[in-house]
Every structure is written in C-alpha cells, then in structure tokens.
Design a protein that fits this description.
The chain is an alpha/beta fold and 251 residues long. The protein is built from eleven helices and eight strands. It has an eight-stranded parallel beta sheet. Strand 7, helix 9 and strand 8 form a beta-alpha-beta unit. The two termini are 15 Å apart. The relative contact order is 0.13.
Length: 251
C-alpha cells in the first residue's frame, strides 16, 4: 500500500475545459496551479490527464511543488522501446501513480513496473462508460460483455505481476481474490453522495459504495471541481469526510 494517510486516498482529477481562442498551455497551468492551491491544505492526491498532455513534466512539478502527490494518468500504450523511453523520464519525477494500458507487450509492462520502483503502475481496466452493447460492438467473442471483459483484464494483469489496477467500482467483484489480497485498487467513476449524478458514468458509485466494493482509493473529478455552490476546497473536504467514514466502517 502506497498511501501514507487517508487524505491521499482521495484522488482529485483536474481536467479543465479549453475555451476557443485561448492558449491551452496558459489555461492548463493556471487551472492546475489554482487547484493545487485549493487542495494543498487537505493533502489529497491530484490526477492529471489532459493537463499532463499539454504541460508535460511541468505539470508534475507544479503538483509536487505544492506538496501533493501526483497521479500521472497517461495510459501508456506503445511498443516496448517507447514504453522504456517513457519510464526513463517518468522515473526522474517519481509520480505517486502512473497508468498504462494492459494491452502493451507483457514483458514491456513488467519492465515498466520494475523501472519505476517508487511509482505504482496501474494497468487500466475497461473504461467506465462502456456498457454491454459496446463490448458487443468490439466483436471479441471472449469478452462479449462488461463482466467478462473485466474478468479477463484482472487475470491478465495478475499474470503480468501488476501491483494494482484502475477500474470501475462495479468491476472489482470479478477480480481474483489472490490479486486483491496484494494489489492496490483505484476506482474512478465515483460521485460524492451530495452531488447530482450526471449521465456520463453509468457505472458510478458513491465513495461509501466504492470502498465497500473493495477500492483502496477513489478518483473524483467534476463532483469536486465543477460544483457551483461550494469552493473546490469545501467540495473536497466534504468528500474526504465521506472517505474517512467509509474506511472507518470497513475497518
């Protein structure tokens, strides 16, 4: 387990909108800096995806300079040599977590994990907005629905000696018990119970339900960053209270 305290188990996703005719780099830098300023007193973890693609390593530096942990959501997917090159620069910045596709060559995934001993490499499971009809459209007879796709995913990364995974909360139920015993499970598609659910995440659960399902940490995006009635800090504080209560019940 990589978490030093409960606060780090709340991972706040920062993904700004880029209005037309604005400088993406300036928007990303300002958004990330403001988010870190809001979240720094709480000690949560910050996840970056689009921001990382715009700013590169600078984004990791901004997060670390604020004293927060960085979840680098790159979903690395490439040939072995390129994945190895990625590991070289990522190792220098040592983010807390990094996502990678479990569809890369198994040896490349194992080498990535070995090359980043201070970073939890998380293979990415079936995306949270996919339903059974989507898997039928993909046309893989071995993964005709979400449950079968998730089960195959967990079996593959278990054999690949992964130390954790990022997956929808509802998928944890099909993970092998042996994998869950030693792995760190991160779940996106989590919405605080006091926010209004949108239609983007059909498989979303509340923090309480996610931890009951077996999550070790949760990712929350717009449920914290897009609230109009409260500040980002207050939204994160309320959600962190849910996390603390859920973990206390589980223990």
């Amino acid at each position: 387990m990589i978490f030093e305290n409960v606060a780090q188990r709340l991972i706040v996703a920062i993904d700004p909108h880029f209005p037309e005719d604005t400088n993406p780099k300036e928007v990303a830098q300002q958004c990330l800096a403001e988010a870190c300023n809001e979240l720094e007193p709480l000690g949560v973890t910050v996840k970056i995806n689009t921001v990382a693609r715009v700013l590169g390593a600078t984004a990791v530096e901004i997060i670390h300079d604020s004293g927060l942990g960085c979840f680098l959501d790159l979903k690395l997917y490439d040939i072995g040599n390129t994945v190895e090159n990625d590991a070289d620069w990522i190792r220098y910045y040592s983010p807390m977590m990094l996502t990678a596709s479990e569809r890369v060559k198994p040896l490349a995934l194992q080498q990535l994990i070995a090359a980043l001993p201070d970073t939890l490499v998380l293979p990415v499971g079936p995306l949270t907005d996919l339903d059974d009809m989507d898997f039928k459209w993909f046309g893989n007879p071995n993964e005709p629905n979400r449950a079968s796709a998730a089960e195959k995913f967990f079996n593959r990364i278990w054999q690949g000696r992964a130390h954790g995974a990022i997956c929808a909360p509802v998928d944890i139920a099909v993970a092998p018990k042996g994998f869950l015993t030693n792995a760190t499970i991160i779940t996106p598609a989590v919405k605080p119970h006091w926010t209004v659910l949108d239609n983007n995440s059909a498989n979303a659960l509340t923090p309480t339900k996610a931890f009951e399902a077996g999550a070790d940490a949760i990712v929350v995006g717009r449920g914290i960053t897009a609230q109009e009635s409260v500040s980002m800090r207050e939204a994160a504080k309320r959600t962190l209270a849910e996390v603390e209560e859920a973990l206390a019940k589980r223990q």
